[in-house]
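Lab notebook page, bench 4
Experiment: in silico fold of construct C2
Operator: M.H.
Input chain length: 427 residues
Purpose: comparison with the prior construct
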Amino acid sequence: MKAVKRILLAVLIVFVLAVVAFGITAAVLCIKNPNPDRPSEIDNHTGFVQTYGRNFYDGNGKLLQFKGVNLGNWFVQEPWMTVSEIGDFDTGVYTDVRGLAAMKQNPNLTDEQIDELRKLYIDTYIQEGDFKNIADLGLNCVRINFTYMNLTTDGRTLRENAFDKLDWALDMCEKYGLYAILDLHGAVGSQNMDNHSGTDADWDLYPNEEHRAWTIELWKAVAQRYKDRTVVAAYDLLNEPRSAPGKYAGKEQFDFYDELYNAVRAVDANHVIIMECFTFPTHGVSEKEYNWENVAYSYHIYNQTPLPQSVCLYFYKALHNLKGYDVPIIVGEWSCWGKAEDWQASMDFFDDLGWSYCSWTYKTNNTNYGGFMPDYMVDWGIYELSQPMIDLSTATYEEIAQAYSALGTENAKTATAYDVYKQRFGK
């Protein structure tokens, strides 16, 4: 009996020591600042944004932290934040692929009118004044989200005017002193099977050799087009990649990132390349495994738990410290919705670590939130529209044109993020 007690006592002591060791380790990971060394200047006079250690530097070698916003729902519409819907067509859930198909079967629309309406949406949703608004709020960056559908007719054939609107957006960034991050939100075949990739019907990028090849060619075309544009801060190669539908990223995605990296580098040696650890830092792979240079990693931080925002942030910090990435971090998407104190606390946290950030998103249409989002997820945009939905499968050209023409920011109300940014950075 005494021997059994000694064994049980020894097991208990080991268990207690293990718990204590785990607690100390977790505390250190939560407390440790992963980026304490931030030289204010380096020898970089390339004109291009560059990485050095765990920080970004501008083209003159000055320390740079991106504080920006996404231009979501512009080039790619999402069903919960757009004005477009498709009624009973197909699954009834809007995606860009399904929306185009619904318009093509609409007897009220010709192919020419469909092209006109799609152009009207793009031209109306984001205008020159929006870039000025962003700059006036004191932000310095926009993350421009696009898909293969914006640039190609079929995934492999570039449109005749493929780059016109992106060219214009970069011109606006230059005019108003903003950097641009070019983000491929939807690759050919979809890298995640989420509606924000343009389709929720396919997860057919990685398994499909043709789709991978076309996506590589698309990035080569983008890099060739913008290799000399210093206003472009970085190429974000794939938004929120998944290792399988509903699963997070991992090595499979980073192996394909390596293919994309090498294809871009063959054309463009200057621009920063961003890879996404979706959704937690532990879903990334060490940059040393691939011998990459001038790269950054991205996290997307949305606290969808009942826990305080601070717990969420320190959880990300602990996992980041655990992985020990030696690259800059940009929080490519994040939001605290209508909680002003969480917005401020999050930016304080990012600033302390030297992490860059771009909130989601500049402008939304909030009419359809209830169909997709919990009640507390309001105020997704800096600006919020409340326009009625329009059924692309049955409406007339005039009705759709009227709906799209009402999407200018002058018809939107400011939301929580506007007030926070105005107070924190506003001119």
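Observations: The chain has one domain: 32-424. The chain has a mean pLDDT of 93.
Next step: discuss at group meeting.
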